[in-house]
Design brief:
2 domains, single chain, alpha+beta
Length: 611
């Protein structure tokens, strides 16, 4: 495998690892509202006793069965968060009410099994008290595995809140049906069986990440939830320390292109060779917002398109993002501004070219997309090679953007040394030559438009929203539309560009590849999955129209800086983490089924053995 210029082996993570990881992260969901979960608790409190006791039971017996399930569930839902906090954990009421419901629900298979067994001729009829006591082991099994992972990864500190619901359930069962030494012993035995099943599951699920990284995988769950749900600084720091353990130094590159009108900067195009991941707001994820806030209002409207790189160049923590931000501030303050001597529009050497270029003075803006075919990450090594070759042959500074605008799962990557990389290089060289040939003397005008306040969950668009940079140069007007999201569903790019006909001569729509959008449902959450196309087209047209209304003659400033030895995740850490997460998901799934069946079998055996 050929080495690339930053000292990292080229290549990408195996598609199967990415798929398995998306399955795992999709389990990290947002709990339904407390009221919805409370209603579900009420429903299961009615259904379970009805299935267990009816027909034949009296109304008082049925009501007793409802209370035995409902009271422990509601009381434990309310009492678990403060008790977890007292044990140095954290568990929100919203999740506590959902846990109370699922803990009651998990006993349903045991009840069904025992009711079916009762239909067998000659089979013993089990008393309701025995079955209700047996259900408490299942309640403890589910509660403890959940609280251990989400609240506090310590058996001693998670067991007290885990015991709330089953112990209350046992107390009510014994109160309702009578207490005897036999039932007390059985109740204790069922709790022991539930705890052992939970401990076995947790140990199995913990092994893949502990074996690979030397830390507890289960212990990372609470920081993940706290970071995603609360943006808790301590949780963020904990996760970033984990990523930092495997970070390696890499030489990065930062390129800026800024436009100044009337003595002030109206727009800044920031192009660091940094991938905006790994997810949520960790490390360099949400990079467009972080860089824009760092540069401040003096930079005008900041656009941070995706540059050619992949998860190998994720930054592990906020410290590295600050390092890139400080370099961007320094570079921006020192940029020399001047009207470009020559400029072109956005030029393609042929209709099916993967590259288009626009010359602005001594800088060429090179835009790359394989659309309408799938297009995704491009290895940094590929872009570094074409940048060096084009700069040497043309004498221009090269600023490369990966439009990242045609999503099909696990397709569209361009890796070093492949025929796709060679074609991209040839297309890029041809595009730059065509732009140089089309460049003419004359003024450059610039306008910017911004549309924000989107919801990641409802529209799949990140906090930077939609931004449009419109340039009028070389006799043509070009719109660069940047959507803060992770790729664009295949086919939508062409529809959006059609919506700009009549407004501008040339246009391209790009995405930032911001991985903050993953935190809603754990999937890619590509732009267009949730937001209707007609509204997206209308929003883009409105944003470009706003930019056109702001067009002013502009000076252009461009420059670049090398950032040596910046810690990045690197290919080994990315591949190891994705593989370990996939293994954890598989291990947890298998252990969940296995320990549940073991608990069903052992509980049923105890119940049937009791005289």
């Amino acid at each position: 495998m050929a080495p690339d210029p930053v000292g990292l082996p080229s290549g990408t993570v195996a598609p199967e690892a990415r798929v398995r990881t998306r399955r795992y992260t999709s389990a990290i969901f947002r709990a339904p509202s407390t009221l919805i979960s409370a209603g579900l608790v009420g429903a299961i409190s009615l259904v379970l006793p009805a299935f267990l006791l009816l027909p034949g039971a009296s109304l008082s017996a049925f009501v007793t069965g409802v209370l035995v399930i409902a009271v422990p569930a509601y009381v434990s839902a309310v009492a678990t968060p403060p008790l977890a906090a007292a044990m140095e954990g954290r568990f929100r009421l919203r999740r506590s009410m959902l846990l109370a419901f699922t803990a009651a629900l998990v006993a349903v298979p045991l009840v069904i099994l025992l009711r079916l067994e009762a239909l067998v001729p000659g089979a013993p009829t089990l008393p309701a008290i025995a079955v209700l006591l047996g259900c408490q082991g299942f309640v403890l099994w589910l509660r403890h595995m959940t609280l251990f992972g989400v609240s506090n990864p310590s058996h001693s500190r998670s067991l007290p809140p885990s015991l709330l619901q089953p112990v209350l359930g046992i107390a009510l069962v014994l109160w309702a049906y009578g207490t005897t030494p036999k039932w007390l012993v059985l109740a204790g035995l069922f709790l022991v069986l539930g705890f052992l099943a939970a401990a076995l599951l947790l140990r199995a699920a913990d092994r893949p990440i502990r074996r690979e990284f030397g830390v507890s995988g289960v212990s990372l769950l609470r920081p993940v939830f706290d970071h995603i749900g609360l943006r808790d600084p301590a949780a963020t720091a904990s996760l970033e320390r984990f990523f930092h353990r495997s970070a390696i130094p890499a030489d990065l590159r930062l390129t800026l292109m800024a436009f100044r009108s009337g003595g002030r900067t109206t727009a800044t195009l920031a192009l660091p060779t940094v991938h905006p991941g790994p997810f949520a707001a960790l490390g360099s994820s949400d990079l467009p917002r972080k860089l824009a806030e760092r540069l401040g209002t003096s930079a005008g409207v900041v656009l941070v398109p995706h540059t050619p790189c992949n998860h190998d160049l994720d930054l592990p923590s906020g410290a590295e993002v600050d390092q890139v931000g400080r370099a961007a501030e320094t570079l921006l303050q020192g940029l020399p501004y001047a009207p470009p001597a020559r400029a072109s529009g956005l030029v393609a050497p042929r209709p099916d070219s993967w590259a288009r270029a626009q010359v602005l003075g001594d800088t060429v803006l090179l835009l790359v997309t394989q659309a309408p075919a799938p297009t995704d990450d491009i290895d940094y090594a590929v872009a570094d090679r074409l940048t060096r070759e084009i700069s040497a042959s043309s004498g221009l500074r090269v600023a490369v953007i990966d439009a990242h605008n045609s999503y099909v799962e696990d397709r569209g990557d361009i890796t070093y040394g492949t025929p796709a990389a060679e074609r991209l290089l040839a297309d890029a060289v041809a595009a730059v030559r065509a732009a140089q040939a089309a460049a003419v003397p004359g003024p450059v005008e610039v306008g910017v438009g911004v549309r924000e306040n989107y919801s990641i969950g409802e529209q799949g668009i990140g906090p930077s929203g939609i931004r449009a940079l419109v340039l009028r140069a070389g006799g043509r007007t070009t719109a660069y539309v940047l959507i803060d999201g992770n790729n664009l569903l295949i086919g939508l790019r062409e529809k959006i560009l059609q919506g700009l006909h009549g407004l501008v001569d040339d246009a391209e729509v790009m995405t930032t590849d911001n991985h903050v959008v993953h935190e809603v449902d754990g999937s890619i959450n590509a732009v267009g999955e949730k937001y209707p196309l007609d509204r997206l087209v209308a929003d883009v047209r409105t944003t470009v129209t706003a930019a056109l209304a702001e067009m002013r003659p502009a000076e252009v400033g461009a420059g670049g800086i090398d950032l040596p030895g910046v810690p990045v995740l690197g290919p080994d850490a990315t591949a190891r983490l994705l593989t370990s997460l996939g293994d954890t998901f598989s291990m947890f799934t298998n252990a969940f089924v296995m320990t549940f069946l073991m608990l069903v079998a052992s509980t049923a055996a105890v119940l049937l053995a009791v005289p």
